[in-house]
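FIELD: query
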Amino acid sequence: MFQVRIHGRGGQGVVTGAEMMSIAAFLGGRHAQAFPSFGSERTGAPVVAFCRMDDREIRLREPIMQPDAIIIQDPTLLHQVDVFSGLRQDGYILINTTRTFAELGLGEFVRDFQPAHLLTVPASELAMKHVGRAVPNVPLLGAFAALCGLISLDAVQRAIDDKFTGPVALGNKAAAAEAYKSVMGHAKQQEETHHA
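FIELD: result
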């Protein structure tokens, strides 16, 4: 079973992001579930949502305490909430930011993590460019697909169609595709540098 915990703020599409991830996993032939952890649902308040995917039926229902991957939709949460709680050192970290892990003050923390499991993506900028609103959830979903390889870009695109229509769907699909391609390009570049 692969478990993902998504941290963000109210209004950033955290819950929708988890739902679309589970739809994409389901479209890829896996069992999946997504659910939010409801606290105060104010815009701007910290929000957490969860997604599990597995090849077998999922019977667990409780919040994810030991995630395999953490997605952080708002980097200001890094200093407010223990977003990394329970994450193992072989886990994945995906952060919506234009800055590096070192620039975020996380260099020391992630030192023992696998570099290929750490990723920052300017998801808000991609959303603004393609959708006209800085909602980072869909570009992060595209980036997650490329980072972990558990869901395909095609399944993400179909999940977007399941949630949105018209120009919003098209914009989100373009944002997810650009995030996916940039991560794949980055991974290829790292590999070539590693083998050089």
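FIELD: remark
The two ends are 35 Å apart (CA to CA).
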